[in-house]
UniProtKB/TrEMBL annotation:
Its main location: membrane. The lineage of its organism: Bacteria, Bacillati, Bacillota, Clostridia, Eubacteriales. This is YitT family protein. Residues 233-285 form the DUF2179 domain. It comes from Gallibacter intestinalis. The chain crosses the membrane at residues 20-37, 63-82, 89-109, 115-140, 161-179.
Length: 299
């Protein structure tokens, strides 16, 4: 009976995830197909890379995007294994498929060509899309995947977010030589709006660093391994006692980004749903540059 309930709950959760991911794909593809492309704009990330490729190849944007997504998925599987790749496989297929549909619908948000409005609303819709995906614990196979490979294999000491920003910046700089400096500057505006919108979707107007505290009885080692091996974050632990039951527990404290806290939350839901978890905003963390601000800054 319990197995049936668990199975039913899993099916329900998966269905809800799929609906949210479908909504995210609609927001994202509308941003690209109905706002960015008709106004001759570009952006960072995989979208910007595909935009550059399309300038030299006579294929639909969705076709190039689909091929690029699958290529990154394969590379991700080779370098990081199936465990990491499976997080992106759904969106690697769903996102380009929805994009094909939007290309056929031929929708447009703006009445005429307006690059300023297009740059702003392209960022808003793309940010909503990415925010929903991160909130549900999934990720795109674009520069997210590339950043994961670079961090895992080459630069483990650098946060994934910084690597992604560097990749986006490189794509925008290349775009300046191909589409012109003005288009690249509009892309920069779009990218900044995307970043802010993602944070707003996930955590409202909270800070970009959160402190997560987990109180668990039996799963401390598994949680610690996940934080250190998969998230590459430091962990502080202490032994605590529940005064009502007098049972002994382990309290785990982690400082991480909102994106990483969502990953941790999803892991806890799978491994220890009875854990007590609290998350609070943190204005600043100084830790000698170990994934946070350098302690010598802001003196």
């Amino acid at each position: 009976m319990k197995d049936k309930e668990n199975k039913r709950k899993k099916v329900k959760d998966t269905t809800i995830d799929m609906l949210f991911l479908l909504a995210a794909c609609c927001f994202g593809t509308f941003s690209t197909v109905s706002i960015m492309l008709p106004n001759g704009l570009t952006s960072g990330g995989l979208t910007g890379i595909v935009r550059i490729i399309q300038n030299y190849v006579n294929l639909n944007f969705s076709v190039i995007y689909y091929m690029a997504s699958i290529a990154i998925l394969i590379i991700l599987t080779i370098f990081l294994g199936w465990k990491e790749a499976r997080k992106t496989i759904i969106l690697s297929i769903m996102y380009p498929t929805v994009m094909v549909v939007f290309e056929k619908l031929n929708l447009s948000l703006l009445e005429g060509k307006d690059v300023i409005l297009a740059a702003v609303f392209c960022g808003v819709f793309s940010g909503i899309s990415s925010g929903i995906v991160i909130w549900r614990g999934y990720c795109f196979s674009g520069t997210d995947g590339i950043a994961k490979i670079i961090r895992k294999k080459l630069l483990p000491q650098i946060p994934q977010g910084k690597i992604m920003v560097t990749i986006d910046a490189a794509v925008i700089i290349v775009s300046a030589f191909i589409f012109g400096r003005n288009i690249a500057l509009y892309a920069l505006i779009t990218q900044l709006i995307i970043s802010k919108t993602i944070d707003t979707v996930i955590f409202g107007f909270e800070s970009k660093i959160v402190q997560v505290e987990i109180i668990t009885k039996d799963m401390a080692e598994q949680i610690i391994d996940f934080v250190m091996d998969d998230m590459h974050r430091g962990v502080t632990t202490e032994k605590v006692i529940g005064e009502y039951t007098k049972d002994r527990y382990t309290k785990i404290r982690v400082y991480c980004s909102p994106r990483e806290s969502i990953e941790l939350k999803k892991k806890l839901a799978e491994t220890d749903p009875t854990a007590f978890v609290s998350s609070i905003r943190v204005e600043n963390v100084w830790a000698n540059g170990k994934g946070f601000k350098d302690i010598h800054e802001d003196k």
